């Protein structure tokens, strides 16, 4: 086979072959199937076995239709029951076609006894033949199949109508299997509605990767996994393409190299596509195909623009319908692409017929795509035309749009496609390079590009300079957040604040950049503990993102709004966390870094409400989003909440290990001054005190910077430590700034915890009224938010019982707390004077020495089922301290065992007596 002189091309040499739709055969051995045997396609065989009355197998040339049907007939043992014929060019004559049909039916065992010989005659028409065949088949009792290949070659509309009559009136014993390159103009819709039509289309005919591997192995060709994957991808599972590759690979000295270079210009592929597809088209269609081969996808209007013609959409639809390696990309059939190998051949033809037009075609395509809202394709075509200035301007204008559409990797690839000097020569493009590097986790490279962009900012036109300034400020804040550098964040916040005060249109920012600036500003303020300002900016950013349809930004803003809300309401924080996660799930981003921080934030809020199992589920789900691209603060928050969960469950050693582990991501610096670092340190102190390691806790506190010691978490942990050291006065001093509101960044849960510790300290000092007031304030704060955990971490059961007897406020919350602590639910009186303890039976006896307040607390917990270590955890003291108090209690009560001590204490009125049964 040769090429036409007007379209001479150079193709990659390969063996001479003959290709038919039935199989691929070597010219030197026409009787041997080149693949070494057909691949058994079980799934398609099963569909053919289960098929209805009519089966249509449709696909482009070389898609394996004929081989499939021949293999199925052999596999199913239908050789004597299948009437097979293929429509040839001469069969366009109705008489010849119907003669072939009658002869094929007569060749079957059942048909030979029923079908009368058909003699051709000048006056014999197709209608008469159909009626005669239907009459002969009326007595058919067995099942036979009429298998017709290349039905698309039937050119006569009248013959198709006659064939339709045979289809609709044939007895149920006659089954039809039709192979065609495109849809047939037959009335098959009734059969489709009745479930009697089986359709096997091109997508089903494509070889799977496993089938492709079987094909190569049958021919004795061994390929690596990567080479096999590459060939399968480039052929798109096209049967003829794979078989042609088999032919070329047989005996090839370097199969891996062949696989890497295999394309539509390989000789065997080129010959086949030219003969079966391209040479069958008109000059107008060939010109459209070659000039649009520069495109990844093509529409009718775009084809018309590149060809200076009209009717391109109709031509593309007809090519797709004809199975000419044109694939529709949408249901409306308005966008198309070419098969990869066919596109290779078309591009090769363009380079040999109109090489001077390549750049102009790309340039025209860039303009069309830019004007119709397809920036990625616009940039790629401008790059292909080597118009770097235009490509840079397009990318600078649209990189944020591309990124917010979830295509950050695409933006990075587009930047990488520029020459290095083209990137650094354009300050706006340099800023884009900085953004893509930062989002890819390359902080140092991103910082380098940021510096270059700032240095070249003066060269940017004045109308675009404010936009660049805000972009650089947003990127610098992002870099500082990634480094956990709060000082740098604070410096850049002012740049964003100035942008926030100006009109977006005046600055030429665009609403996307304004939304990004608002959310970036809010996040920066959040970690600087300017919580109220953070919430205001985040709410505005989320509202703007929602209005302009930017869910990516909305998710990020909602997740951080949840963190901000957690300072005042765990319920509101949990609600916002769920909103962010659900929105991410709807868009397929539930495992992406953009929503990662919502998971530990939601889990933490649930832990404070006592919902530990649900919190653990959210932490586990969020682990999928915890990747290297997330901000270090997110990784630190995961660590903090995991540690908190272990504390809440009483797994103190596990909590200690979690909190001591490096919370930052590998290779990512994190500032010691970050508020999350302080929170981790606060809970670390908490755990050390619970374990009785007061010396270690003191050492950690000594190493803590003065600024950190002012934070609520550290002050609360300090108070717990002082109580464990039997120094309630020092505990109240540590809590004072937190209770009067002067401590910075006070979190709701720290306020409740501080009030509980204040109540314990005041009670220890004998200030019962002050203790009651502190407890009441803690209950007031906790109940609306559903906070339970502070009462479990800093338990005050005796104060709660006394409070329940004396007051009627918060009865439900108190019952819930006491139950969670494992004690009896206290009786809360409806009205009347405070309940008095029943006097002990018999005359009261005096102790040789009064119990200290610490000893009295231990005595009250001895009547529970708690062990000494558990009592230590409840009282926030060491186990050794508890055991010392227990010895003193036993000595003063004159007891030797725990139960004996409890009985003596009840007899002395130190504990309430056991209620008597009625």
Commentary on this structure:
By secondary structure, the chain is mainly alpha-helical. Helices cover 60% and strands 5% of the residues. Strand 10 (326-328) and strand 11 (335-338) form a beta hairpin. Helix 9 (225-235) runs parallel beside helix 11, helix 18 packs antiparallel against helix 19 (388-404) and helix 34 packs antiparallel against helix 35. The termini are far apart. Residues 1-36, 502-508 and 824-844 have low confidence and may be disordered.
Count of alpha and pi helical runs: 48
Ends apart, CA distance between termini: 110 Å
What coarse outline follows from CA principal-axis ratios?
A: elongated
Beta-strand content estimate: 5-15%
Mean pLDDT rating:
82
Low-confidence stretches: 1-36, 502-508, 824-844
Tally of DSSP β-strands: 11
Helix fraction bin: 55-70%
As laid out across the biggest beta sheet, the strand order is: 5-6-7-4-8
* Classification by helices and strands: mainly alpha
Radius of gyration, whole Å:
41 Å
Could you describe the largest sheet, including whether it forms a barrel?
A: 5 strands, parallel
